[in-house]
Structure formats: C-alpha cells, structure tokens
Sequence to fold (759 residues):
Amino acid sequence: MIEALNLVKKFGDFVAVDGINLKILPGEIYGFLGPNGAGKTTTIRMLTGTLKPTFGKIKILGMDMEDHEIEIKRSIGVVPEEPKLYPYLKGYEFLNFITEIFKENPKEMKKRIEELCDAFDVNFLDRYISEYSHGMKQKLMVMSVLMRKPKVVFLDEPTVGLDAKSAKILKMLLKKMAEEGATIFLTTHVLEIAEKMCDRIGIIDKGKLIAEGTLKDLRRMEGEFKASLEDLFLKLTGQGEEVERIVREL
Amino acid sequence: MKEVLTILKYGLKGSGIFARRKQGKGIPAFIIPLIFILAFGIPMYLVLRESFSYLLNTTSVAQLEFIVTLWCFFLTIISITTLFPFIIYSLIKNEEIEMLLSFPIAKGSIIVYQTILTLMSESFLTVFFLFGFLAYTDSMGYNRILSIFTSLTYVLLLISLSMLLAVVLGRFMGKHHARKVHMIMYFINILLFVLFSQMNPSVLKNMSFEDALKRLTSIKKFIMNPLNPAYLPILAIKHITVLLIMILLVMILFILVYRLSEDISFEMTYKKRKKEVAFSERSGKALSTFSKDFKIFFRNEHMVFMMFYSIGFPLIYTFFSKDFSFSFPLMIYISSFYAALASAFLSSQEFLVIPLSKSFPVRLERLFLPKLLIPTLLYTLIYVIFSIIYISMTDNLFVLLTVPFTFLLYLFSSYLGIRFYLKKPTTNTKKVISGARIYVLEGLILLVGLFTSIAIYLYVCMRDSLVKFLGESFANLVGLALPTITSLFLIFYISRGMKRISDIFSRLD
Fold:
C-alpha cells in the first residue's frame, strides 16, 4: 500500500509538488499522468525515498518513510525514468549485485532471472552494460525489479525503449503481479497503456493532483461519457484547445 | 580529399578540444595546435641544432647520422604505438562516426578525418619530428625545402602505417577492448619514453672497451639498415630515389587503408558466443558494494594505469639513479594523489546512476565506504611492495614503520577525493576533478604527506641527515611527534567525515 499525505517538494522558490494526497491499495494499478514538468518524477522519487519531501508524510506498506527508509527500500522495486546503470559491470554482475544488496535468495533469483531472460529475449547478460543500447538497459532494469517480486512497484515510463513484445509481456506481468496483491504505481505518456491497464488514474499538473479516479469517474467528472483518456487528459490539463489551434495554424 | 576537407571544416567546430569555441567568435580551430607546434617546436629546433652542430664538430658525420637515426627509431616506435590505438579508440568511441556513416562519404575519408583529429590532439609527434629533423638537416647544410618535404613525407608514412594498423586491428576489437588496448599502449609508451630517455652512454661504462664497441656496432647495424623505416628520412635527404620510394609507399598505404576501410563496420564487435554467466551464490550486502566497486576499479584502465605508474615510475627512477632517497617521497606523493583520483572516480560511478544508487536498501555511508577503502588498501599494498623492494636492497627493516602512517595518508587522500568530487560532481569520468580544485587537492595531499609519511620516512631511513640538518631534538619533533599528531587528527577528521559525505550525496540529483 502507498500513502502520501500533503506531500510538498520545493526547489528554492519553485514548488514542484504541491500538497499531493494519495492512497493506493494492494492489488491496484495506479496510473500517474501529467504533462512534462508536472511533477510526476519528483513525486515518484519522494515515494521511493530517493528525494526528501519538503513537507508531508509517506507511508509504504504501513511503514513510515522517515523511520523505516531502509526496510521500505528493501520491499519496493523502482524502475526509474532513465535506465542509468553501472557501465563497468556486466549484465549478470549487476543482477548479482542486486541479489546481494537486497539480501535475496540467490537460488530463487537465478531461477527467476532465467525465466525473465526467456520472456524478454535477453541474451546479453555476459556483456558490459557500457555496450548496451537504451532498450537493453531498460530490459535489464525491468528484470532487476521483477526478479525480486516486490510488494510495491514504481515504474516511471517503463515501456520507453522496449520492443513491442517486451512491452506487452511487461504489461501482462504487471497485471499478474497486481492480481497477486502487489501495488503498482506507474507513470506513462502513452495514454492507451494507462487506459487499458490502470484501475485508477491520477492526473497531476503544475504540482497539483487535479483529478483522480477510475476512467469512469473521470468521464463522469467531465461529463463526457464516451471520451477517451487522451481527450479527458487534454481537457483536464487545458491543452485540448491549444492542440487544435496549433494544428489549425500548421 | 574534398570530402575529408568538408567534414573536417564542420568537425573541427564540434570536436572535444575545440568545442568551447563559439560559432563565429574566437580564434579559428587550427590556430590552437599551430600555436602549440610553434611554441614547442622553435625552442626545440634551436636546442637540437646547437647540439647537432656541436656533435658534428666534435665527432663525425657518420656518428651524427647514427644518433639521428636512433632518435628517429625511438620516435617512430612511440609514434606508431601511440597513434594506432588512439585511432581505433576514437573511431569506436566517437559518436559522430555513426552520423558520418549515414552520409555518402567513403569510409576511408572518415578514417583520415579521425586521424587528423587525433593528430591535432597528439601533435607532439609532428613537432618532434618536423623540428628535430630540420635541426639535423640545417646543421648538415642540406636543402631546407627538401628537408621539410622529406620530414612531412615521413610523418605521412608514420600516419598511414598507423592507419593501416588501426584498420586491420580495429576489425577485431569491441569498444571495451579498444579502450583497454589504448590504455595498455599508453602505459607501454610512457615506459618506453622513460626507458629511452634514460638510455645514455653510462650504460656502456660498465662494459669493457671491446664489448662496448661490439654492442655499438650491432646497434648501428640494426638501426642504419635501409629496411628500417626510421633510416629512410636520413637516406631520402641524400638520395632522391629513396624519397620517391617513401612517397610511393605512402600512396600505396593510403590506397590500402581506403580499400580495407570499406569492409569495416566501425561498430562494437561482438563474438557470437554464448558465454556462461555466473550467478551469485552469496546473499547479504556486506561484500556486495565492495565487490562491485572492486570490479569497477579494475575495469577502468586509468585506475589500473595509475596504480602501476605510481610504483613503476619510482622503480625505474631508482633503477637508473640507484638511490631511494628521492624515489620514496616521489612514490608517496604520486600514489596518494592517485588514491584521491581513484576514490573520486568510484564516487562518480555512483553519481552516474542516481537515482538507482539512492534506491538501494543501505545507508549511504555504507555505499561510500568501499570508495574510501579500496583505493586506500590497494595503494597501501603497493606501498608495502615498494618497501619490501627497498628492504631487499638496503636491509633497512625500519621502513615498515612508515606503513601505518602512509595508510592513513591514503585514507585521507581517498576521503579528500570523494569530498572534492561531491563538491562539484560531473558525469565526465575522465576529469572527475578539474580546474583549480585539482591544484588545491594536490597541495593539501603534499602538505599532509610531508607532515606524515615523508616526515616519518626521513626520520626512519635518513635519520643521520635529518639530525645533522635539524638537530637531535628538532629532528625528533619533526620526524616523530609531527606525524603522530597529524595522524591522530586525520583519524578524527575522517571518522567524522563519512556522515558528511552521505549528507552531501543525499542532496545530489
């Protein structure tokens, strides 16, 4: 379970996240959407303990982030926006490192890695990460999280760089994990993914959570019962008319 | 040739060494290497011309020819071993190459372009050869125009040979291996340079006259052989046919490079082999951060080079000077500075992967502990090896007393490396600490080194000289009390500093 209470993050005078409240239950897939610079990544980083909030409280799996940061980090999985990995390590060495640092069972991990290698067509673990393409790094990063089967998973644009097959497998695996009780928190710019996958959607703009609910709730909120998520998103963020104007002028 | 000039025209604007020049402003790109060439070349020409004229007056033409050919020989070896790995590495590393490959340009032109960029950053070869050879031909009274033409042809010959080697060997190397070969050759070059510069007639002093004569004759036979390319410019200045052969050779080599380069892919090559991957049997995090940083350390060729250099250079110095009194402080200074750079490099690897590194379930102090301890322990090991060599040559076991002090100096240097890096972190892992900060770092390390390891070394190994210079009581104060007090302060300072490091890192984005 993920809980955030009145979460605020300021960078000097700039307020990146402005009083966000979240409650995401086990088994739920939550889509966190917003335009570029809206505060999605900053929110994820606070929820995962990699950025200290200026104000507010975070609870993951019932544990307070301030008091149980290490325990929380051990229980969650994070796929960051950019797959930045140690360039001097080989793929399998990175996975070994993750196994050790998260104190996972090596035998179980080995089995799980082999399964994931088959699923994602990964046959490059013996090569240095410095030689990987963006997609290869993304696959490795996703594998390093999925192999641990964490109870809470945060994914920031997880399908960027993945081929169609891998993206499909990832989406199905996330669904399966949610069915088994995991909490999934993901951001994406591909609104079709959010529409198809997410149980609930939160839309953030200029640091504020401007709408939250199921797709049905959002449609009801806007009084557009047949609108796609894309239309709703553009309307809620005030970008719909601008898009039409730009296209007209072009 | 036109396409080489076209890509060069735009390439020079964006290449690393000239990147800072704003469009349309400042000095043209070719001016910087030109200034460098003239600034080093003219004084070198004057000094060498003086020396060659002196040799000509005191010995004979044949002997001068022998010395110049020997000089050419060393320069040829160093030039080729520097250039070809550099070209391979640049071709694989340079992201611009991928864009150039999409243009309708011959691959050979891309190689020539990259070689010119390489030459501009490694222009010492041109400087050494052009001005050195001119000094020789001027002192001999040869035609100056012909001399410049000959030396330029020879430089082209060296370049084309290096390009050929790069094209042939580049086919079998991936990015990782290219980087390794580049670094190994760099290391070999420094050793060769030190060896060549230390080679002097004193080596022959220990031989009998007959042996020395025999040795010299055999060297002369090998060096002044028309099959030795380094002898070609000396012959070419006297015989135009040799010059024509050189020109022909350059042309053939260039054609070969163009032909062979059409088949190379400029990609990182991977052997299609399924390697077994070894999954961890270990659980628990105690060693995980250490083993990761240990691997990273040894996979960076600069780190390995620095380790070998910090012992290799003082050893070579000792070998030729037969004196440890200077090589010990030299070793302490070089190695402690390198320990700082190593810890800064390891810290940079953690900065590169933020936010991943912050998401690990470990305290940040723990993540940084290997960055402090790995360089400290490795350089201490090297110091112990150096001390054992010293003991084997001097039977002075007391030098081992300096080890704990040097260990603390390395610990302090590594700590400083992390702090200096985190103060201004960069993703450029080749220049982890740059600008004025590097001099401040060097100064601090030198100062603390003087107060600890060097002071105790002087007290333990050169006590008589120290007492003679400072007097008994003052020598005790400087040689014993000062290192002890400074070391206690270092322990206190570093133990408090680790928390500060994790605080700084947690604030980084």
About this structure: The longest helix of chain A spans residues 164-179. The two ends of chain A are 46 Å apart (CA to CA).
